[in-house]
Amino acid sequence: MAAKAADELSKLTVNGSAIKPNPQVNGTDGANGHLSDQDDSEDDKGDDTTATGGANGNSASGASKKKKKKKPKKKKAGGAKVQSDPPRVAVSQLFSSGTYPVGEEVEYKNDNAYRTTNEEKRHLDRMNNDFLQEYRQAAEVHRQVRQWAQTKIKPGMSLTEIAEGIEDGTRALTGHWGLEEGDNIKGGVGFPTGLSINHIAAHYSPNAGNKWVLGEQDVMKVDFGVHINGRIVDSAFTVAFDPKYDNLLAAVKDATNTGIREAGIDVRVGDIGAAIQETMESYEVELDGKTYQVKPIRNLNGHDIVQHSIHGGKSVPIVKGGDQTKMEEGEIFAIETFGSTGRGYVVDDLEVSHYALHADAPNVPLRVQSARSLLNVIKKNFGTLPFCRRYLDRLGQDKYLLGLNNLVSSGIVEAYPPLVDVKGSYTAQFEHTILLRPTVKEVVSRGDDY
Ligand SMILES: [Co+2]
Protein backbone atom coordinates (compact mmCIF):
# COMPACT_ATOMS: atom_id res chain seq x y z
CA MET A 1 0.00 0.00 0.00
CA ALA A 2 1.12 3.41 -0.55
CA ALA A 3 0.79 6.73 0.98
CA LYS A 4 0.71 9.79 -1.06
CA ALA A 5 3.86 11.55 -0.83
CA ALA A 6 5.04 8.40 0.50
CA ASP A 7 4.00 5.21 -0.82
CA GLU A 8 3.70 1.81 -1.73
CA LEU A 9 4.61 -1.57 -2.73
CA SER A 10 6.77 -3.37 -5.06
CA LYS A 11 6.42 -5.40 -8.05
CA LEU A 12 8.02 -7.51 -10.53
CA THR A 13 8.07 -8.05 -14.05
CA VAL A 14 6.78 -10.71 -16.06
CA ASN A 15 7.60 -9.93 -19.53
CA GLY A 16 9.32 -12.57 -21.30
CA SER A 17 12.70 -11.37 -20.60
CA ALA A 18 12.37 -10.60 -17.04
CA ILE A 19 10.69 -13.64 -16.00
CA LYS A 20 12.80 -16.29 -14.69
CA PRO A 21 12.13 -19.79 -14.20
CA ASN A 22 11.93 -19.64 -10.55
CA PRO A 23 11.79 -22.66 -8.61
CA GLN A 24 8.80 -22.74 -6.63
CA VAL A 25 8.34 -23.16 -3.19
CA ASN A 26 11.05 -21.18 -1.85
CA GLY A 27 12.03 -18.81 -4.36
CA THR A 28 13.96 -17.48 -1.72
CA ASP A 29 16.59 -19.99 -1.65
CA GLY A 30 18.88 -18.05 -3.70
CA ALA A 31 18.70 -15.46 -1.10
CA ASN A 32 19.79 -17.47 1.80
CA GLY A 33 21.79 -20.09 0.21
CA HIS A 34 19.94 -23.12 1.06
CA LEU A 35 18.31 -25.23 -1.43
CA SER A 36 19.76 -24.06 -4.58
CA ASP A 37 18.63 -26.87 -6.68
CA GLN A 38 17.03 -25.09 -9.50
CA ASP A 39 16.62 -28.16 -11.49
CA ASP A 40 15.10 -30.63 -9.36
CA SER A 41 12.93 -28.18 -7.76
CA GLU A 42 11.15 -28.50 -10.94
CA ASP A 43 9.25 -31.31 -9.65
CA ASP A 44 7.44 -29.20 -7.28
CA LYS A 45 7.55 -26.15 -9.19
CA GLY A 46 5.96 -25.83 -12.29
CA ASP A 47 3.77 -28.60 -12.23
CA ASP A 48 1.20 -26.41 -12.01
CA THR A 49 -1.26 -28.67 -12.21
CA THR A 50 -2.93 -28.76 -9.15
CA ALA A 51 -3.20 -30.97 -6.54
CA THR A 52 0.26 -31.53 -6.11
CA GLY A 53 0.37 -34.55 -4.32
CA GLY A 54 2.73 -33.31 -1.83
CA ALA A 55 0.05 -31.62 -0.03
CA ASN A 56 -1.74 -34.71 0.81
CA GLY A 57 0.87 -37.24 0.40
CA ASN A 58 -0.21 -38.50 -2.88
CA SER A 59 2.88 -38.78 -4.88
CA ALA A 60 1.13 -40.11 -7.86
CA SER A 61 0.47 -36.67 -9.07
CA GLY A 62 4.03 -36.28 -10.00
CA ALA A 63 3.65 -38.97 -12.48
CA SER A 64 0.56 -37.69 -13.99
CA LYS A 65 1.79 -34.38 -14.73
CA LYS A 66 5.28 -34.53 -15.31
CA LYS A 67 6.07 -37.79 -16.51
CA LYS A 68 9.63 -37.24 -17.58
CA LYS A 69 12.59 -38.10 -15.79
CA LYS A 70 12.44 -36.60 -12.50
CA LYS A 71 15.09 -37.49 -10.22
CA PRO A 72 15.46 -37.64 -6.61
CA LYS A 73 12.82 -35.52 -5.36
CA LYS A 74 13.57 -34.63 -1.87
CA LYS A 75 15.33 -31.44 -1.53
CA LYS A 76 12.41 -29.56 -0.24
CA ALA A 77 13.27 -27.66 2.82
CA GLY A 78 11.59 -28.82 5.90
CA GLY A 79 10.08 -31.96 4.65
CA ALA A 80 8.42 -33.63 1.77
CA LYS A 81 5.42 -31.44 1.27
CA VAL A 82 5.11 -29.17 -1.69
CA GLN A 83 2.88 -26.28 -2.62
CA SER A 84 -0.27 -26.86 -4.66
CA ASP A 85 -1.55 -24.94 -7.64
CA PRO A 86 -3.38 -22.76 -6.91
CA PRO A 87 -1.47 -22.35 -3.66
CA ARG A 88 -3.51 -23.74 -0.76
CA VAL A 89 -0.99 -25.47 1.50
CA ALA A 90 -0.20 -23.39 4.58
CA VAL A 91 3.51 -22.64 4.85
CA SER A 92 3.35 -23.79 8.45
CA GLN A 93 2.85 -27.27 7.00
CA LEU A 94 5.70 -26.88 4.56
CA PHE A 95 8.02 -25.71 7.34
CA SER A 96 6.73 -27.74 10.20
CA SER A 97 9.74 -27.01 12.36
CA GLY A 98 8.57 -23.43 12.61
CA THR A 99 11.83 -22.19 11.15
CA TYR A 100 11.35 -20.24 7.95
CA PRO A 101 13.85 -19.31 5.24
CA VAL A 102 16.03 -16.34 6.06
CA GLY A 103 15.85 -13.41 3.66
CA GLU A 104 18.89 -11.87 2.01
CA GLU A 105 21.26 -10.81 4.79
CA VAL A 106 23.51 -7.85 4.03
CA GLU A 107 26.29 -6.72 6.35
CA TYR A 108 26.31 -3.13 7.48
CA LYS A 109 29.04 -0.86 6.19
CA ASN A 110 31.53 1.61 7.55
CA ASP A 111 30.94 2.65 11.15
CA ASN A 112 28.39 -0.10 11.54
CA ALA A 113 30.52 -2.93 10.20
CA TYR A 114 31.28 -4.01 13.78
CA ARG A 115 27.67 -5.07 14.27
CA THR A 116 27.96 -8.32 12.39
CA THR A 117 30.15 -9.91 15.03
CA ASN A 118 29.49 -7.73 18.09
CA GLU A 119 28.35 -9.92 20.96
CA GLU A 120 25.85 -7.46 22.36
CA LYS A 121 24.21 -6.96 18.97
CA ARG A 122 24.11 -10.70 18.41
CA HIS A 123 22.37 -11.12 21.73
CA LEU A 124 19.79 -8.50 20.81
CA ASP A 125 19.23 -10.26 17.54
CA ARG A 126 18.58 -13.60 19.24
CA MET A 127 16.02 -12.01 21.52
CA ASN A 128 14.02 -11.19 18.44
CA ASN A 129 13.54 -14.72 17.23
CA ASP A 130 9.74 -14.79 17.42
CA PHE A 131 9.53 -11.53 15.56
CA LEU A 132 11.92 -12.79 12.90
CA GLN A 133 10.07 -16.06 12.38
CA GLU A 134 6.76 -14.22 12.01
CA TYR A 135 8.33 -11.90 9.46
CA ARG A 136 9.99 -14.72 7.54
CA GLN A 137 6.80 -16.76 7.51
CA ALA A 138 4.90 -13.83 6.01
CA ALA A 139 7.67 -13.31 3.47
CA GLU A 140 7.61 -16.97 2.45
CA VAL A 141 3.87 -16.69 1.85
CA HIS A 142 4.50 -13.61 -0.27
CA ARG A 143 7.09 -15.43 -2.40
CA GLN A 144 4.91 -18.48 -2.94
CA VAL A 145 1.81 -16.48 -3.77
CA ARG A 146 3.62 -14.18 -6.17
CA GLN A 147 5.29 -17.11 -7.85
CA TRP A 148 1.83 -18.38 -8.65
CA ALA A 149 0.73 -14.91 -9.75
CA GLN A 150 3.72 -14.46 -12.03
CA THR A 151 2.97 -17.75 -13.72
CA LYS A 152 -0.75 -17.18 -14.14
CA ILE A 153 -1.27 -13.52 -14.87
CA LYS A 154 -1.94 -13.13 -18.58
CA PRO A 155 -3.75 -10.66 -20.80
CA GLY A 156 -7.44 -11.47 -20.88
CA MET A 157 -7.71 -12.07 -17.13
CA SER A 158 -9.91 -9.75 -15.15
CA LEU A 159 -8.45 -7.71 -12.33
CA THR A 160 -11.00 -9.23 -10.00
CA GLU A 161 -9.82 -12.72 -10.85
CA ILE A 162 -6.19 -11.73 -10.28
CA ALA A 163 -6.88 -9.95 -6.99
CA GLU A 164 -8.98 -12.78 -5.61
CA GLY A 165 -6.36 -15.33 -6.65
CA ILE A 166 -3.64 -13.47 -4.78
CA GLU A 167 -5.79 -12.88 -1.73
CA ASP A 168 -7.10 -16.43 -1.48
CA GLY A 169 -3.55 -17.72 -1.87
CA THR A 170 -2.44 -15.43 0.93
CA ARG A 171 -5.29 -16.53 3.17
CA ALA A 172 -4.67 -20.20 2.59
CA LEU A 173 -0.90 -20.03 3.03
CA THR A 174 -1.10 -18.01 6.23
CA GLY A 175 -3.92 -20.25 7.49
CA HIS A 176 -6.19 -17.27 8.06
CA TRP A 177 -9.28 -17.03 5.90
CA GLY A 178 -10.41 -14.02 7.86
CA LEU A 179 -14.07 -14.93 8.04
CA GLU A 180 -14.32 -15.28 11.79
CA GLU A 181 -14.14 -12.15 13.82
CA GLY A 182 -10.56 -11.31 14.70
CA ASP A 183 -8.95 -13.92 12.47
CA ASN A 184 -7.63 -11.44 9.93
CA ILE A 185 -5.91 -9.52 12.71
CA LYS A 186 -3.90 -12.61 13.62
CA GLY A 187 -2.67 -13.13 10.10
CA GLY A 188 -3.57 -13.09 6.42
CA VAL A 189 -3.95 -10.29 3.94
CA GLY A 190 -1.87 -7.31 5.06
CA PHE A 191 -3.55 -4.73 2.85
CA PRO A 192 -5.63 -4.66 -0.35
CA THR A 193 -4.08 -6.06 -3.48
CA GLY A 194 -3.06 -3.16 -5.68
CA LEU A 195 -3.42 -3.85 -9.41
CA SER A 196 -2.57 -0.50 -10.93
CA ILE A 197 -2.35 -0.27 -14.69
CA ASN A 198 -0.36 2.11 -16.93
CA HIS A 199 -0.66 5.71 -15.70
CA ILE A 200 -2.24 4.51 -12.47
CA ALA A 201 0.73 4.13 -10.15
CA ALA A 202 -0.78 2.82 -6.94
CA HIS A 203 -3.82 2.01 -4.81
CA TYR A 204 -6.11 0.70 -7.49
CA SER A 205 -8.01 -2.46 -6.56
CA PRO A 206 -11.23 -3.62 -8.17
CA ASN A 207 -14.47 -2.99 -6.30
CA ALA A 208 -17.48 -5.30 -6.74
CA GLY A 209 -18.65 -5.51 -10.33
CA ASN A 210 -15.39 -4.23 -11.83
CA LYS A 211 -15.03 -5.63 -15.35
CA TRP A 212 -11.54 -4.42 -16.20
CA VAL A 213 -9.54 -6.96 -18.20
CA LEU A 214 -5.75 -6.87 -18.43
CA GLY A 215 -4.47 -6.10 -21.95
CA GLU A 216 -1.38 -7.09 -23.97
CA GLN A 217 0.03 -3.59 -23.92
CA ASP A 218 -0.56 -2.93 -20.25
CA VAL A 219 1.99 -2.34 -17.51
CA MET A 220 0.56 -3.51 -14.20
CA LYS A 221 1.93 -2.94 -10.71
CA VAL A 222 1.07 -5.87 -8.43
CA ASP A 223 1.38 -4.69 -4.85
CA PHE A 224 0.18 -7.01 -2.12
CA GLY A 225 0.76 -7.54 1.57
CA VAL A 226 0.98 -10.54 3.85
CA HIS A 227 1.05 -10.43 7.64
CA ILE A 228 1.52 -12.76 10.54
CA ASN A 229 0.61 -11.23 13.90
CA GLY A 230 0.69 -7.76 12.36
CA ARG A 231 4.20 -8.21 10.95
CA ILE A 232 3.45 -6.88 7.50
CA VAL A 233 5.51 -7.78 4.45
CA ASP A 234 4.95 -5.12 1.81
CA SER A 235 6.40 -6.06 -1.55
CA ALA A 236 5.46 -5.32 -5.15
CA PHE A 237 6.51 -6.00 -8.73
CA THR A 238 5.47 -4.93 -12.21
CA VAL A 239 4.11 -7.09 -15.00
CA ALA A 240 4.31 -6.28 -18.72
CA PHE A 241 3.99 -8.52 -21.75
CA ASP A 242 5.52 -6.33 -24.45
CA PRO A 243 9.33 -6.18 -24.33
CA LYS A 244 9.25 -2.49 -25.25
CA TYR A 245 8.74 -1.82 -21.54
CA ASP A 246 11.82 -3.75 -20.49
CA ASN A 247 13.93 -0.68 -19.79
CA LEU A 248 11.20 0.96 -17.76
CA LEU A 249 10.97 -2.10 -15.55
CA ALA A 250 14.74 -2.48 -15.38
CA ALA A 251 15.12 1.16 -14.30
CA VAL A 252 12.74 0.76 -11.42
CA LYS A 253 14.07 -2.59 -10.31
CA ASP A 254 17.58 -1.17 -10.29
CA ALA A 255 16.43 1.95 -8.44
CA THR A 256 14.72 -0.11 -5.76
CA ASN A 257 17.80 -2.26 -5.33
CA THR A 258 19.87 0.91 -5.04
CA GLY A 259 17.62 2.09 -2.23
CA ILE A 260 17.92 -1.27 -0.50
CA ARG A 261 21.70 -1.17 -0.81
CA GLU A 262 21.98 2.36 0.59
CA ALA A 263 19.58 1.79 3.49
CA GLY A 264 21.02 1.12 6.92
CA ILE A 265 21.24 2.18 10.54
CA ASP A 266 22.14 5.90 10.89
CA VAL A 267 21.65 6.51 7.16
CA ARG A 268 19.79 9.71 6.24
CA VAL A 269 16.72 8.99 4.15
CA GLY A 270 17.48 11.97 1.92
CA ASP A 271 20.72 10.35 0.84
CA ILE A 272 18.83 7.22 -0.14
CA GLY A 273 16.43 9.31 -2.23
CA ALA A 274 19.29 10.96 -4.07
CA ALA A 275 20.89 7.61 -4.91
CA ILE A 276 17.57 6.20 -6.11
CA GLN A 277 16.97 9.17 -8.36
CA GLU A 278 20.39 8.96 -9.91
CA THR A 279 19.94 5.29 -10.75
CA MET A 280 16.41 5.73 -12.10
CA GLU A 281 17.33 8.65 -14.34
CA SER A 282 20.23 6.77 -15.88
CA TYR A 283 17.70 4.76 -17.90
CA GLU A 284 15.80 5.63 -21.05
CA VAL A 285 12.89 3.82 -22.59
CA GLU A 286 11.72 4.10 -26.19
CA LEU A 287 8.01 3.72 -26.78
CA ASP A 288 6.57 3.98 -30.24
CA GLY A 289 9.41 6.07 -31.58
CA LYS A 290 9.69 8.46 -28.68
CA THR A 291 12.45 8.32 -26.08
CA TYR A 292 11.75 9.03 -22.41
CA GLN A 293 14.19 9.40 -19.57
CA VAL A 294 12.67 7.42 -16.72
CA LYS A 295 11.53 9.78 -13.94
CA PRO A 296 11.04 8.89 -10.31
CA ILE A 297 7.52 9.78 -9.15
CA ARG A 298 8.59 12.44 -6.71
CA ASN A 299 5.56 12.44 -4.43
CA LEU A 300 5.60 8.72 -3.78
CA ASN A 301 7.89 7.25 -1.14
CA GLY A 302 8.96 4.24 0.76
CA HIS A 303 8.00 4.18 4.43
CA ASP A 304 8.60 2.51 7.74
CA ILE A 305 6.25 -0.21 8.93
CA VAL A 306 5.18 -0.89 12.50
CA GLN A 307 3.16 -3.77 13.89
CA HIS A 308 -0.38 -3.72 12.43
CA SER A 309 0.29 -0.44 10.67
CA ILE A 310 1.59 -0.11 7.15
CA HIS A 311 2.91 3.41 7.58
CA GLY A 312 4.84 4.15 10.73
CA GLY A 313 5.55 7.83 10.15
CA LYS A 314 8.92 7.93 8.42
CA SER A 315 9.23 8.30 4.66
CA VAL A 316 11.96 7.24 2.27
CA PRO A 317 11.97 9.65 -0.66
CA ILE A 318 12.85 8.56 -4.17
CA VAL A 319 14.28 11.91 -5.23
CA LYS A 320 16.93 14.13 -3.68
CA GLY A 321 15.72 16.76 -1.26
CA GLY A 322 17.75 16.71 1.87
CA ASP A 323 15.52 14.96 4.40
CA GLN A 324 17.90 14.44 7.34
CA THR A 325 15.77 11.83 9.14
CA LYS A 326 17.85 8.79 10.02
CA MET A 327 17.00 5.12 9.92
CA GLU A 328 17.47 3.42 13.31
CA GLU A 329 18.26 0.01 14.71
CA GLY A 330 15.25 -2.28 14.82
CA GLU A 331 13.19 -0.36 12.31
CA ILE A 332 11.43 -1.94 9.36
CA PHE A 333 11.17 -0.22 6.02
CA ALA A 334 9.33 -0.79 2.79
CA ILE A 335 11.75 0.38 0.13
CA GLU A 336 9.74 1.09 -2.97
CA THR A 337 10.38 3.16 -6.03
CA PHE A 338 8.18 4.22 -8.93
CA GLY A 339 9.36 5.23 -12.38
CA SER A 340 7.29 7.01 -14.98
CA THR A 341 7.27 8.18 -18.57
CA GLY A 342 4.87 10.95 -17.56
CA ARG A 343 5.32 13.91 -15.21
CA GLY A 344 6.72 11.95 -12.36
CA TYR A 345 4.01 13.29 -10.08
CA VAL A 346 0.73 11.66 -9.04
CA VAL A 347 -2.66 12.97 -8.04
CA ASP A 348 -5.80 11.32 -6.65
CA ASP A 349 -8.24 9.99 -9.21
CA LEU A 350 -10.85 7.30 -9.84
CA GLU A 351 -13.02 5.36 -7.44
CA VAL A 352 -11.60 4.61 -4.00
CA SER A 353 -11.12 1.00 -2.93
CA HIS A 354 -8.50 1.24 -0.14
CA TYR A 355 -9.24 2.41 3.41
CA ALA A 356 -7.73 2.10 6.87
CA LEU A 357 -8.77 2.95 10.40
CA HIS A 358 -6.61 5.74 11.79
CA ALA A 359 -4.36 4.53 14.58
CA ASP A 360 -5.29 7.63 16.57
CA ALA A 361 -8.86 8.00 15.41
CA PRO A 362 -10.72 10.87 17.05
CA ASN A 363 -13.47 9.82 19.41
CA VAL A 364 -16.33 11.70 17.84
CA PRO A 365 -20.00 10.90 18.22
CA LEU A 366 -21.35 9.23 15.11
CA ARG A 367 -24.90 10.17 14.23
CA VAL A 368 -25.25 7.71 11.39
CA GLN A 369 -26.17 4.32 12.79
CA SER A 370 -24.68 2.46 9.83
CA ALA A 371 -21.36 4.22 10.45
CA ARG A 372 -21.35 3.02 14.06
CA SER A 373 -21.98 -0.58 13.16
CA LEU A 374 -19.50 -0.50 10.28
CA LEU A 375 -16.84 0.94 12.56
CA ASN A 376 -17.35 -2.01 14.86
CA VAL A 377 -16.90 -4.45 11.96
CA ILE A 378 -13.72 -2.66 10.86
CA LYS A 379 -12.23 -2.64 14.35
CA LYS A 380 -12.92 -6.31 14.92
CA ASN A 381 -11.79 -7.58 11.54
CA PHE A 382 -9.01 -5.27 10.41
CA GLY A 383 -7.98 -3.09 13.33
CA THR A 384 -5.60 -0.59 11.77
CA LEU A 385 -4.74 -2.84 8.81
CA PRO A 386 -5.82 -1.40 5.47
CA PHE A 387 -8.84 -3.03 3.83
CA CYS A 388 -10.89 -2.57 0.67
CA ARG A 389 -14.55 -2.68 -0.20
CA ARG A 390 -14.38 -6.29 -1.41
CA TYR A 391 -13.21 -7.35 2.05
CA LEU A 392 -16.35 -5.83 3.56
CA ASP A 393 -18.47 -7.55 0.91
CA ARG A 394 -17.08 -10.98 1.75
CA LEU A 395 -17.91 -10.44 5.43
CA GLY A 396 -21.52 -10.03 4.38
CA GLN A 397 -21.67 -6.27 4.71
CA ASP A 398 -23.83 -4.46 2.21
CA LYS A 399 -25.11 -0.94 1.65
CA TYR A 400 -22.23 0.34 3.72
CA LEU A 401 -21.07 3.20 1.50
CA LEU A 402 -22.94 5.93 3.31
CA GLY A 403 -21.55 4.75 6.64
CA LEU A 404 -18.07 4.33 5.22
CA ASN A 405 -18.08 7.82 3.75
CA ASN A 406 -19.28 9.13 7.08
CA LEU A 407 -16.33 7.49 8.84
CA VAL A 408 -13.99 9.06 6.30
CA SER A 409 -15.44 12.53 6.67
CA SER A 410 -15.31 12.17 10.46
CA GLY A 411 -11.59 11.53 10.27
CA ILE A 412 -11.87 8.04 11.76
CA VAL A 413 -11.11 6.11 8.61
CA GLU A 414 -8.71 7.30 5.96
CA ALA A 415 -9.44 6.74 2.26
CA TYR A 416 -6.48 6.00 -0.01
CA PRO A 417 -7.64 6.85 -3.52
CA PRO A 418 -5.82 5.58 -6.61
CA LEU A 419 -2.79 7.70 -7.49
CA VAL A 420 -2.29 8.52 -11.13
CA ASP A 421 0.28 10.20 -13.36
CA VAL A 422 -0.83 11.84 -16.62
CA LYS A 423 -3.00 9.85 -19.00
CA GLY A 424 -1.04 8.02 -21.64
CA SER A 425 2.01 7.61 -19.42
CA TYR A 426 3.37 4.34 -18.08
CA THR A 427 4.52 3.73 -14.52
CA ALA A 428 6.34 0.85 -12.87
CA GLN A 429 7.15 -0.11 -9.28
CA PHE A 430 9.27 -2.57 -7.32
CA GLU A 431 9.28 -2.90 -3.56
CA HIS A 432 10.82 -4.94 -0.77
CA THR A 433 10.53 -4.99 2.99
CA ILE A 434 13.80 -4.77 4.91
CA LEU A 435 14.54 -5.37 8.60
CA LEU A 436 17.30 -3.29 10.21
CA ARG A 437 18.36 -6.02 12.61
CA PRO A 438 21.01 -5.18 15.22
CA THR A 439 23.57 -7.31 13.37
CA VAL A 440 22.63 -7.23 9.68
CA LYS A 441 20.14 -5.76 7.25
CA GLU A 442 17.72 -8.49 6.14
CA VAL A 443 15.85 -8.08 2.86
CA VAL A 444 13.17 -10.37 4.13
CA SER A 445 10.98 -10.42 1.00
CA ARG A 446 13.84 -11.09 -1.43
CA GLY A 447 13.28 -13.96 -3.86
CA ASP A 448 14.81 -15.42 -6.96
CA ASP A 449 12.42 -13.34 -9.01
CA TYR A 450 13.24 -9.84 -7.76
CO1 LIG B 1 4.71 0.09 0.66
UniProtKB/TrEMBL annotation:
First-level EC class: hydrolase
GO molecular function, one term: metal ion binding
Predominant location: cytoplasm
GO cellular component entries: cytoplasm
Residues where substrate binds: 203, 311
UniProt keywords, alphabetically: Aminopeptidase, Cytoplasm, Hydrolase, Metal-binding, Protease
Listed CDD domains: MetAP2
Residues involved in a divalent metal cation 2 binding: 234, 303, 336, 431
Cofactor annotation: Fe(2+); Co(2+); Zn(2+); Mn(2+)
Note on cofactor: Binds 2 divalent metal cations per subunit. Has a high-affinity and a low affinity metal-binding site. The true nature of the physiological cofactor is under debate. The enzyme is active with cobalt, zinc, manganese or divalent iron ions. Most likely, methionine aminopeptidases function as mononuclear Fe(2+)-metalloproteases under physiological conditions, and the catalytically relevant metal-binding site has been assigned to the histidine-containing high-affinity site.
Low complexity compositional bias, start-end: 49-63
Sites where the protein binds a divalent metal cation 1: 223, 234, 431
Reactions the enzyme catalyzes: Release of N-terminal amino acids, preferentially methionine, from peptides and arylamides
Region (Disordered): 1-96
Stored PANTHER family: METHIONINE AMINOPEPTIDASE 2
HAMAP family per the UniProt record, alphabetical: MetAP_2_euk (MF_03175)
Family, per entry: Belongs to the peptidase M24A family. Methionine aminopeptidase eukaryotic type 2 subfamily.
Name the record gives this protein: Methionine aminopeptidase 2
Taxonomic source organism: Capronia epimyces CBS 606.96
